[in-house]
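Lab notebook, bench 4. Still working through the backlog of constructs that have no structural model yet. Next entry is a single chain of 340 residues. Request: give me the structure tokens for it.
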Amino acid sequence: MKGLKLISPKVIKKIDLDIPQNIPKGHALVKINTISLCGSDYKLFYGDYSGPFRYPLYFGHEWSGEVVEINDDTSNIKIGDKVTGDCSKWCGNCCLCKEDKNLCSNIEKFGITIDGYSRQYAVVETKYLYVAPMETSFDILALTECFSVALHAIKKIESMLDKKDRCILIIAGGAIGLSIYLLLKFKFNYCNIKLMEIDDSKKEFISNVFDVNFASEKSFEVNNSSYSEISKHCNYDIIFEASGNIEAFQQALYLINPNGHIITLGMYPNKNVTLSPITLKSIKIHGTIGGTHEFDEVIKFLISNKDEVKKIITHTYGVDDASMGFQVKDKRIKTQINLW
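Model written out:
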């Protein structure tokens, strides 16, 4: 079998491997069909990932495949099932796991801190697997983790969505930002949404594919010398900051209404930020990470809205030209690699 190993920044090596034998108890052998590239994969490739990581490793934590062997008498998973799986390797035993497995105190991240799924076969513990209906295509199924992260973020403020006149802003029109948009629109039936995207080519693509209202606000600085100055740019009750850009987070602090909620999905560099609006406007900031707990719900959503969600897949490569997938990072929404 073939594997794609990230040796060091910008170095991917295609490796010949033996197909795993003697599958351990509680595990399945999965034939990996498709992996989707995440923003974390690009940062690992270019050497600027800011969280815990290691080289070398098999990258990829968004994936789909088929079970070809199983050694678990207690699982309902069977040979031939189409599956995807958690990004997080959680323990299930610690206090944090009882609250949110995405925050496990013993957590590892597939494809980031431990080997991921950029190989044609992988041995996976069954507790990390989720089964999809057989009619689900592998490309759609490989979007599950991305949309699960988005849904996990939305659930931070889900109770606020009952009031449909709240104005929502999504900063960044990448895969996560568009996943949030599609979930809000088609799952939660929410329409009062604007998107902020500064990349003109990406903005043009989104305009041609999705019926999105774009925010008109530009980058600016706010003088905290008066309360009227602090409040004059406030337009949004909820902001999802999906870029991981510290300047975008600063703009979110300026744009949010008093008593508003900001949900952050990126990992910011250590730079100076004017934080006084948090206190002056009583802003609620919610950090969110991971998508465990949401996979089954998301799979149902993807199947019901497959024509819409498939639009975010902009580039597809194979094993032999997989490294090209990392060269289009400024032009892509979601890039996928087919391993067969």
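Notes after review: The chain has two domains: 2-149+290-338, 157-287. The domain at 157-287 is CATH 3.40.50.720 (Rossmann fold). Flag for follow-up if needed.
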